[in-house]
Amino acid sequence: MDISELLSVDSVVSHLKATGKKQALQELASVAAKTSGRDEREIFDILLERERLGTTGVGHGIAIPHGKLKDLDRLHGFFARLERPIDFDAIDDEPVDLVFVLLAPETAGADHLKALARVSRLLRDSAVCEKIRGCDSPDAIYAILTEQTATSHAA
Fold this sequence. Notes:
Layout (H helix, E strand, L loop, with lengths): L11 E5 L4 H16 L3 H14 L3 E3 L2 E2 L2 E4 L6 E11 L9 E10 L3 H15 L2 H8 L4 H17 L1
Helix pairs in contact: 1-2
């Protein structure tokens, strides 16, 4: 699964302003609603529900909130670099500044897990994260995220 199958430049935010986890999820739900055509409140509620089960803050400044939506046509990804790191209740207690939201159809079982694993592998690469943290535009961030996918498949 290529990151380019999940993300578009329109689904990347390079300077997300948020003071906490809930606000970050709300802002990302807004971006997701515009791109996916789904209801913003429905997306926010699904992401919040998932956070209640346990944090999606995976450590090293990264969070991967995710959820499944009824009648979603395909997997959708949304990425944000926060202007300032926020408390996300991450497993390492470090603040989060890179957030990748993954939304999947309710029926997406294995594909959802494969996409989560792909995103997790990509963002575990500290060199990729440092490049992203140095970017100012959605285009540049998108290029880094999708370039890494192409590179890893060629290897």
